[in-house]
Amino acid sequence: MAFSLTTRKEIIDHLQSEALDLLIIGGGITGAGVAIQASSTGIKSGLIEMQDFAEGTSSRSTKLVHGGIRYLKTFDVEVVSDTVKERAIVQRIAPHIPRPDPMLLPIYDEAGATFSLFSVKVAMDLYDRLANVTDPKYTNYTISKEEVLKREPHLKAENLLGGGVYLDYINNDSRLVIENIKKAQENGGLMASHVKALKLLHAEDGKINGVHAKDLLTDQEFDIHARLVINTAGPWSDLVRELDDQEKIIPQMRPTKGVHLVVDGTRLPVPQPTYFDSGDQDGRMIFVIPREDKTYFGTTDTDYQGDYAQPTVTKEDVDYLLAIVNKRYPMVNLKLADIEASWAGLRPLIASNGSSDYNGGNSGKIATKSFDQVIEVVNAYENAKATKEDVEKVLNDLEVTLSESKLSPSSVSRGSSLAVATDGLITLAGGKLTDYRKMAAGALALITKLLKDQEHETFNPIDSKNLPVSGGDIDPENVVATLEFFAKQGIDGGLSKAESMTIVNLYGSNAARVFSRIGELKAAPGLSLGETLGLHYALEEEMTLTPVDYLLRRTNHILFHRDTLDDVKVGVSNEMARYFNWSTAKKERMIKQLDTAIATSDLRDLKAEG
């Protein structure tokens, strides 16, 4: 289905000429989740995003659909249960995006360690039960110190006790957003990027009935009218609330910044995702993830008050991460010059939810003594030396240290909040990428109730747990074989297996649409045929408007293919200029924008400072 610069004008015409049931402000993963469910329900909906889809936050995560095993340290069983169940749902509705990849958790005997070798086994067993992990390929197990070092010989051996291995999922965050957006558009939703809300509009009765917006590509201002408006602007959600001149706004967001750095896989070779304590007793854990012949690591977690649109990687961020990784991998001696790419993103945390890193509520922090008591009684129960009542008694008597009045950035809740202002503005804020579908389902339940109560319109609920995203028409139980089947079409058309697999991994079942252009398109100058096919699909069906959109968010070229980027960027820029018939001046602006994005990712300024 066409979803391009050409159709964008039609979308904006409809937005300003038709009254909607629902307008969504914010095109990250939360807004995209609401959009796909609302449009599938038959609700006449529109979405506006002031940047590219996913540009603000949802392309800047750790790129995992993470189960949150560390929350079992504080026995946030409900947290982990909900998270791993949602992770399974995301894998089912977007089977070409999250991929299982077992995580190694090395255990060290050191102060402030999250887990001991025994407690990690208890946690992983509980984790597998909560996640219903039964496939022997993915069930957890512990390994000795010798086996950990055999797998990762560069890891620090001193005080290493062994490790645990459990199931986690690699993710492509920006692809997940655009696939939700495309499906919402296909279902009749009106999805528009580069449209900014300037002011919230009110009806005569004082209720919000739309927004005054600006098309940032043409500078045209116009009104969009809707029965309901939902704010899903992530870190910007307080700023959207402040557009309401009839409400007294109390800020609720406390964004924190997370940074990730990318190096070549030969400089930091790891065979599988690895997750360990920072070793600084700061409550943080660090991921080291192999991906596409590169290795990336992060994250930081610091309060942020700068420009939300352009969070940057600072020298302090780099020094912090390099110090931790070099301490854990003392033989690699990574330096600033080794960093090939980077990204910084904001987490839309809600300040008032306490220390539980999930949907609201402060469970406090369990004291070490109490945690040891729980481990002891669980072990006794598993060996038939304690009863269920004994376990319950220990759990009921847990010694809990409540969070301090001033929380550290790492302990601020990443929970979500769904609220309705007195004049009707709905705000869905906070949460984590893994929970996006569940958050959207909660919002849709509220939206359908409000439309029924206020507008006497009834919309039948949908089963969003089985609502595939665009490209997701794949058997989730047989993903690899299905993708290989799609890839055969590309191979039969003359593409290499590697090119064909790259396309199916990006576009899922939509790869058939990409391959259908073989014979119709020729390789653009400077690009392979496979790259040309993918670029044209992105231009025609993914609202790709700039080289940065394509090379950073529709693909991961800027992040994980730095070796070939300098050549590919020329071919992509030239082909987009030809396709859109850009003037010389506009082409120069687009190339400058791309060069700036690459320089930022490269940390060129920090490297110049030495």
TrEMBL record:
One of its GO terms (molecular function) is glycerol-3-phosphate oxidase activity. Keywords: FAD, Flavoprotein, Glycerol metabolism, Oxidoreductase. Its EC number is 1.1.3.21. The keyword Oxidoreductase applies. It is an enzyme of class 1 (oxidoreductase). It catalyses: sn-glycerol 3-phosphate + O2 = dihydroxyacetone phosphate + H2O2. GO terms for biological process: glycerol metabolic process; glycerol-3-phosphate catabolic process. It comes from the Bacteria. Coiled coil: none annotated. The keyword Transmembrane helix does not apply. InterPro entries: DAO_C, DAO_C_sf, FAD-dep_OxRdtase, FAD/NAD-bd_sf, G3P_DH_FAD-dep. Its cofactor is FAD. Belongs to the FAD-dependent glycerol-3-phosphate dehydrogenase family. This is Alpha-glycerophosphate oxidase.
